[in-house]
Amino acid sequence: MLRALGENPDREGLQKTPARVARALGFFSKGYDEDPRxxxxxxxxxxxxxxxxxxxxxDFFSLCEHxxxxxxxxxHVAYIPDHRILGISKMARLFEVFARRLQLQERLTTQVATxxxxxxxxxxxxVVVEAEHxxxxxxxxxxxxxxxxxxxxxxxxxxxxxxxxxxxTLIRSRNGR
Length: 177
What we know:
Elements (H helix, E strand, L loop, with lengths): L16 H12 L7 H6 L2 E3 L6 E12 L5 E11 L3 E3 L1 H12 L2 E2 L1 H16 L3 E10 H4 L10 E8 H4 L1 H12 L5
Parallel strand pairs: 2-5
Antiparallel strand pairs: 1-4, 2-3, 3-6, 6-7
Helix pairs in contact: 3-4
């Protein structure tokens, strides 16, 4: 790759670059080695709580599968339990498992929602992802301030407008206020 760019791979500053890039790509794609079901099943608890649980403003990064350039932003994940709750950190871990793969934002959003729905069978799940894509900022259309928003609403989040509105209101509020 360095030669294709016209660089000398033996130049002092580039001698370790191939190994560094390989390590970085390994870190960025470590989600392939993790089992999302095992993560979710490790922290399921029986609980009679039946109101919405929201994890908002979850920072993340991923690599666009088309250009292998980063996209990054915030995710918001919510569900309404039906006798089983999930450890909060497991929602964040689940998101990371799918974000640390070559991804499409649309797929990432759907994978998180469907995995929660299948694992704990809640009344509903909602996921909203807001991201900046460097492939749009650095190349092609070069739109510097664009943000892509995707959502996946399942169960009561899809079927009941008031549930969806509650979720959207909660994630729009700053600092839980």
